[in-house]
Amino acid sequence: MLSRIASILLIVILALSYKAIKPPAPRTCGSPGGPPITATRIKLRDGRYLAYKEYGVPKQSASKKIVFIHGFGSCRHDTVIATNLPSGLLEELGAYIVSFDRPGYGESDADPKRSPKSLALDVEELADNLELGPKFYVMGFSMGGQAVWGCLKFIPHRLAGASLLTPVINYWWHGFPYNMSVKAYYEQLPRDQWALRVAHYVPWLTYWWFTQNWFPTSSVVQANPAVLSPQDLSVVSNFVKKEHPSQVKQQGEHESICRDTMVGFGAWDFDPLDLDNPFPDNTTQVHLWQGTDDRLVDVTLQRYIVKKLPWIQYHELAGAGHLFPYIEEVSAAIIKTQLPSAKRNKEIKLR
């Protein structure tokens, strides 16, 4: 009798545990009970839909066309290089920008098979659907900056140029010296070490870890100000309230922020530090921007990357944190530096 009761209790515990760690299915936009479709979208070859938003001059008259890749916990509306520029600059440069919801965010369908390669191919297919021409620029911020590595690896022949804005670093890229990546990893808050450890080693537990209340979870997920620099805090205090905050995770956390973390800090099928120069004729420029006081992305690791990849033009911003693209003059310098008709800013110092 006791053994039967124990067996039943074990089954109940296992069932409850499974329910807790099993993420719910995404609430696909336009499906019964799902969020409404409000964005302009394209249908990809595999049947998924990708939502996008356009900025700047009409693409038919644009001389420069840019695909922007948003960061963690953001969507197509959070296009820092378009929304934080001096008035009229995009028109002056003849620039068109398209930003899209990465899979699982906003109104883009989830992609359970998402990888650095699949996202690069999504970028290429979006550009082809919108008829951006044989070559276009890519710019990515934070986790979106990390995604630009996939574009450099898998679609370099389509790129007119690329900018990585404080791209997130995967501590498990094998090209880093072991002691350097370990030191940077342990400089994070313990809660963030655990969040990334779970995402890398037991990714099937990521949803549970991000949504449970027993242990401290990711500082970024919980908007913990401890990971922001003084400059970041100043920038945040000046933020205009987001127009569409509810859209970011409206399809569910698992296929947005959880999938982002699992892909970004998971096992990659290539290492950016091993990339050969995809533009040996030097007609295409790649820029990487990094702040010295970034509490989320380690500047020491970023310096090592550009030392290994000397074909990347490195711009280190003194005193800048992680959110420097939200500063108007910096955002303007980034886009002017990338686009060939603009005067190049060799050095920017921030107070």
UniProtKB/TrEMBL annotation:
Residues 1-20 form the signal peptide. It holds the Pfam family Abhydrolase_6. It comes from Pisum sativum. Residues 66-328 form the AB hydrolase-1 domain. Keywords: Signal. This is AB hydrolase-1 domain-containing protein. InterPro entries: AB_hydrolase_1, AB_hydrolase_fold.
